[in-house]
Amino acid sequence: MAKIEVAVVGASGYGGGELLRILAMHPNVQLKIAVSSTYAGKPITASFPNLSGHLPNLTFTPYGDGVDVAQCDVVFLAQENGKAIQTAPHLLEAGCKIVDLSADFRLRDTALYETVYKTPHTAPEWNQKAVYGLPELFREQIKSAPIVGNPGCYTTASILALAPLLKHQLVDTKSIIVDAKSGVSGAGRAKFALDYHFPEINESVSAYKIAGTHRHTPEIEATLSEYCELSDFTLTFTPHLIPMTRGILATSYATLLGTQATADLYELYREFYKEEPFVVIAEDPLPATKHTLGSNRCHIGMAVDKRNGRVTIISAIDNLVKGAAGQAVQNMNLICGFEETAGLLYAGGMAP
Amino acid sequence: MAKIEVAVVGASGYGGGELLRILAMHPNVQLKIAVSSTYAGKPITASFPNLSGHLPNLTFTPYGDGVDVAQCDVVFLAQENGKAIQTAPHLLEAGCKIVDLSADFRLRDTALYETVYKTPHTAPEWNQKAVYGLPELFREQIKSAPIVGNPGCYTTASILALAPLLKHQLVDTKSIIVDAKSGVSGAGRAKFALDYHFPEINESVSAYKIAGTHRHTPEIEATLSEYCELSDFTLTFTPHLIPMTRGILATSYATLLGTQATADLYELYREFYKEEPFVVIAEDPLPATKHTLGSNRCHIGMAVDKRNGRVTIISAIDNLVKGAAGQAVQNMNLICGFEETAGLLYAGGMAP
Amino acid sequence: MAKIEVAVVGASGYGGGELLRILAMHPNVQLKIAVSSTYAGKPITASFPNLSGHLPNLTFTPYGDGVDVAQCDVVFLAQENGKAIQTAPHLLEAGCKIVDLSADFRLRDTALYETVYKTPHTAPEWNQKAVYGLPELFREQIKSAPIVGNPGCYTTASILALAPLLKHQLVDTKSIIVDAKSGVSGAGRAKFALDYHFPEINESVSAYKIAGTHRHTPEIEATLSEYCELSDFTLTFTPHLIPMTRGILATSYATLLGTQATADLYELYREFYKEEPFVVIAEDPLPATKHTLGSNRCHIGMAVDKRNGRVTIISAIDNLVKGAAGQAVQNMNLICGFEETAGLLYAGGMAP
Amino acid sequence: MAKIEVAVVGASGYGGGELLRILAMHPNVQLKIAVSSTYAGKPITASFPNLSGHLPNLTFTPYGDGVDVAQCDVVFLAQENGKAIQTAPHLLEAGCKIVDLSADFRLRDTALYETVYKTPHTAPEWNQKAVYGLPELFREQIKSAPIVGNPGCYTTASILALAPLLKHQLVDTKSIIVDAKSGVSGAGRAKFALDYHFPEINESVSAYKIAGTHRHTPEIEATLSEYCELSDFTLTFTPHLIPMTRGILATSYATLLGTQATADLYELYREFYKEEPFVVIAEDPLPATKHTLGSNRCHIGMAVDKRNGRVTIISAIDNLVKGAAGQAVQNMNLICGFEETAGLLYAGGMAP
Lengths: 352, 352, 352, 352
Fold this sequence. Notes:
The structure is a homotetramer.
Chain A: E1 4-9, H1 14-24, E2 29-35, H2 44-47, E3 60-61, E4 74-77, H3 84-93, E5 97-100, H4 110-117, H5 124-129, E6 131-132, H6 135-143, E7 147-149, H7 153-167, E8 177-182, H8 198-201, E9 206-207, H9 216-228, E10 236-241, E11 248-255, H10 262-272, E12 279-281, E13 298-305, E14 310-317, H11 321-336
Parallel strand pairs in A: 1-2, 1-4, 2-3, 4-5, 5-7, 6-7, 8-10, 12-13
Antiparallel strand pairs in A: 8-11, 9-10, 11-14, 13-14
Helix pairs in contact in A: 1-11, 6-11, 7-9
């Protein structure tokens, strides 16, 4: 099969770097363009020494200046929020398929986007054609989408944990709490503020943007509301910074309406995700982020406390793979009609 | 003032090591005996090179064999669960005051102890005279207790976070969840199983003993029930292992019965803990475990999500200080009539 | 091409786990048997949750009991030192090719082996037919070897750093020092002693077995002596434990006999390793262990201090890949006539 | 005794924060002024939540504007290099004693300073009156100095390791190598570049400024040359970044001129440092940085390789205490005639 041509815009960040790593080995892809203003003119290894020996002929290029991103079949946009709404329309009109890793095309409700991100959404029509790129919930719509809004890392872990319970109306929708723990790479590579300075993060755990103020809260709420047909649905979401580089562990809580035991819920989750190549239902041991390091899989485990009818669900992902670049490639595979797992199995998880 | 004579039994573990560190500089204490079967006959620095230059004449001694622990004024028992119920009665009868860092004298309900710890409680009468050693809640009782059951690390962080709300009956008692994150020193020093092997823990987060199965769950429930006069009180407690050495961050959730705002709760907590030398109400920044590293303080912050009336409370301690050895010395100070902060202020917190 | 059948003995350790991870995706291999006494009868994921979704039909098996390792084409022995000299002869006589990851077949001088490892070498004849499995120095001999002694992790990093200088007789052979820093996975998975307990390792650096007492010292000396035709060659080797999971950084020092500048040495190293798929000469940035995380590559950089004629060489590897399982697969590829890089490129390095 | 009044300039960095922590508990000191332009007007806890409960009445102040630093008895300057040469002369003329934690007053050879720091030294006369603040080598001179140049962190660990051997002329002065490993707090708090971003540092080790290009190289050379009366003395110094917050481990190498055994050297070091309150000669276990965490002590161990007559010396310090703030207070104690250990013993080391 002829390979498609692909560009990555925002290629020197952590999401971009993982895209380069995965795409370098993808059997159906020729990586043509890696756009980075910071590293323009430099070899890929100037930013990513880990890619030494891969992509030997690729150099970072600036955006514009005759670099014709628009001629690529698929473009990954891995820039900060607010950039894709500017660049995407031109590329879409030129016929590119787009996977956007920012928040710009994740919320169908443009007013909500503008409230949360405090910026006008300048591409509302394309936004209506965009699909939320969580294949486990929206696979068929993704296949024919011109543009996919690739989910946030926290939201991927949270939604996959909660969707089976909410879809089957097994829990009190007012009872839901997600307590999430993230490695620091989730803050991005450009954002090296004091908050992420090694001595401040190391040997410490902290919560931030608590009580519903983190931007992923409305994304989780909107996506679960759409998929599970809920209205007026709110949950409590708490993000924490953990002294590690990669990984998200989401501990979700919900009060059962019925009297299901732990085994009943395991059966439900196994059935719900039985066709999914990238969801693992894990019973013993329970999920740990290390189990997903470098992998595109989400591991999910759970237990019910019979005393109070509350279920605790543990979900783990690699925030840069299933939570960003790996899921983006999974979406590309769907859009292009490739095997859904193409290029994503070799990532494996590492031990230890 | 003449110094009292003190012994530490179980002196080569992490709790024991911190006791030695703190007691070495305590103005009212002469540390006479450090019992360790593992290191018997060796200098303190064989186990704790960090104490080089301190306690120059002290050597670890075995239990018994003419080492007369019973002649000390105060004995700290820092052994695994199930040992203090054997050693304490003899010492108490000899007139020693005891601070026990294990779980043996934390639960007044001996039947509950036997269910949770799966061992008969062989000192039930002394257990009825014991006091739960959380000075912020039980200061007066501690002062005259012959033996104090020093609280667990998770329980200290959890109870201090929840007591003001429950005491004032501001929250739905069925809504409470504590999601706690602990450094690995909480597992103790002797317990070097594969679970705590560096490569398994590092760069990973995991939950364990979820859905009410951790032994600190009944300890939190029983203590809050007693202090706040609750009945049939259960909560959901989830412990997590974090890739760091020290520190516990507890993120607690409760549904408010009223419409208090964040500022109202800050006022309540400031009032509740206004006389406490070791509780800090922290608004900006929110508590992080690093703020308490090496210190005997508990930092507490909070926020309300107006959308769903749920409060999120963040509490942080150093699990080996306020969660173990520091609190034990605070209890000794109360029992002996010393300044409550004696020997505990120099610990300070470190930056970074 | 028909796939060869392969067994891994000692499959539940860190080296074994990485072998399973790499072999699961190897295009020329069918992984038939994974021997582990600890996990016998359990699925691969009981020990390696990271391999969920891979090797779905493989279960750990005990050694013996009808598990016919000897019918495999290639057997990887990944056990503690002293085991391979017992198991290898039988397998070799049955016609298996063997890659041994222990120290048993690394030293051609059996007397030296017995001195260093304090055990009789019970397979001295096979030892004479064994080849030291460092492809960059001994590629041709490996291709026809019945058994390969896969190099130690420290030795791989050290030898690749020093071979060009010593082979070209550019440095004083009495001046050589290797100061090596290793992640804790190098200690293995079974060895969860207090020394490797998370709280003891984390936030600390220490040296151990200093002044020539580490067992990799004679391995480095013997290999460089053979390859560079040196006699009476000794160096100083210092291993250090670093609070990280994977990676070795070796900082090597040598006094130049001539007046080469940094650029001259870079040219020499580029020439020396120009055909090597797994050696990267890195100038800016200098090598860091993170650049090799999950990869089979060794990165090498250097600089000369003109003031005293001393060269400092920095080499980095992933101790579990190029320092163990990856190099073992590279050796298998050579022995079996596969593409040398088969199954090893997808490992990539991760960013970050 | 009346307390002296003290100011800290540059009080919101890591060195400044540790000064505040130590001085808050110092029996002879009243901390009057904490200058920070970044945090001017804010309470100490805005920058250092770890100091909650300490220094309750202190607020950061800007420099100048009526804040009369010059009226203090002792001023600690903890700013970036190049600032103290501007501020110190005025304070010295006003009669303040100064401990400068920057490099500005460490080198008596002003031309060397200007070469290394690429800036003119604008206070050369005061520089001639300054003393290098390493009490173990220059105690008597420090006592009467108007200004002390507090040593660098790398240099403290290196010089204390090498001084006994060089002073006694036991080693080849051309053979010396120091391979040093530092936690990231050594880079300072303001310097939160990509190089120190958590995901770049964590799980990685790297060398930087190799082959004599780090600025601490001439500082070590000049100090040892002065103290040991050496001429044309150069050594090789290699700094490394380690994924931890605090601590320096220096591994030093030298070739013995004689045939001393390990035990001979231990005897020499014990004799050399026998009166020193802050030097620990450690034989078993060897020094690790964790042994010094939070402490003002330097731990030193060693071994000789009889095969090649080379000695390996291991020295460990906490870079922010003995390598910065603790040593600065030790110097203040000498200058002011206080007990040399005043305020420095409670720091202790922590276990773990």
